[in-house]
Amino acid sequence: MAHDKLAVLIDADNARPAIVEGLLAEIAKYGTAHVKRIYGDWTKPDLNGWKDALLRHSIQPIQQFRYTVGKNATDSAMIIDAMDLLYGGRFDGFCIVSSDSDFTRLASRIRESGLTVYGFGERKTPEPFRTACDKFIYTEVLAGTGESEPEAAPKPRSAKELRGDARLMNLLRGAIEAASDEAGWASLGAVGSIVNKQSPDFDPRNYGYAKLSGLIKGIGLFETEERHIGNGKHLYVRPRNSKK
User: Fold this and answer.
1) Class of domain 5-141
2) Which positions ≥6 away from 108 have C-beta within 8 Å?
3) In Å, how far are 3, 99, 154 from 205, measured between CA atoms?
4) Could you tell me whether strands 93-97 and 60-63 are parallel, antiparallel, or unpaired per DSSP bridges?
5) Under a CB-based contact definition with an 8 Å cutoff, are residues 141 and 209 in contact?
6) Residue 60, SS3?
7) Which residues contact 236 (CB under 8 A, 6 or more apart)?
8) Residue 87's pLDDT is what?
9) Is 66 in contact with 89 (CB distance < 8 Å)?
């Protein structure tokens, strides 16, 4: 996965320059950005703040004039370019950076072709676009991962707050049960994989934890066990009330 060739397409109207450092650092976890393009009407003064970030990171600005009021020509240009890149057959995945639901069908279409779609957007991003991606990362959690810090990273939620989040608890318990053996133990890696498939926007950082293991331990309702398998260490988890 880390060697995947990725195309990064940014909607300048629905993203902020301050996220670029953290964004590219996050994308590097999934592969190499062979194409980095950002779309907008660069004749408008509200996009002037992007200049330094684009020069520093070699992101290619694509000019798209706003032909009429109320019509987003930028979205159309970005979608057309994405389809051209898709048909070129050179990429393993796409990174779509926007909080706009207009890219929902694009994400679905790319996935239908067997490629991976990583979405990036603010918490206000509509659910249809989030769930259309294989993985969706909120840009708010990217604070502190690069040189720029758009805002403070979320503080870790307390055990009480985590346990009171019914959606989170049901998601984790269901994944652990699905991946568990007869003794109730489940590989944390398998749990994470199941959770991400069921909820593309799941991210431990949304709850203030850098990794899933930290979130699991923070809840306090699961026991963990580290096992040495081969040359590596693997973490296993199960509910505390499981029978041994």
Assistant:
1) alpha beta
2) 132
3) 24, 18, 7
4) unpaired
5) no
6) strand
7) 185, 186, 187, 188, 224, 225, 226, 227
8) 96
9) no
- Only one residue has tokens 């708010």, namely 140
Which CATH architecture is the domain 159-239 placed in? 2-Layer Sandwich (3.30)
Q: What is the predicted pLDDT for the residue at 148? A: 45
Question: Can you give the pTM of this predicted structure?
Answer: 0.82
In the DSSP assignment, the letter for residue 146 is S
Q: How far is it, in rounded angstroms, from Cα 101 to Cα 103?
A: 5
- Residue-range domain boundaries for the chain: 5-141, 159-239
Q: How many CA atoms lie within 13 Å of 122's alpha carbon, on the beta-carbon side?
A: 12
Please give the structure tokens belonging to residue 146. 């690069």
Structure tokens at 162: 């985590």
pLDDT over 90 percentage in the chain: 77
What pLDDT score was predicted for residue 68? 54
Alpha helices in 38-179 (DSSP H): 51-57, 73-88, 104-112, 127-132, 159-163, 166-179
Evaluate if residue 243 carries a pLDDT over 60: no
Residue 53 has pLDDT above 70, yes or no: yes
How far is 149 from 96, CA to CA, in rounded Å? 21
**54 DSSP 8-state letter:** H
CB under 8 Å, gap of 24 or more: what pairs does 89-92 form? 90/5, 90/34, 91/5, 91/6, 91/7, 91/34, 91/35, 91/115, 92/4, 92/5, 92/6, 92/31, 92/116
Is the four-CA dihedral 194, 195, 197, 203 of positive or negative sign? negative
Kindly report which listed range (23-32, 115-124, 138-147, 226-235) carries the lowest average pLDDT score: 138-147
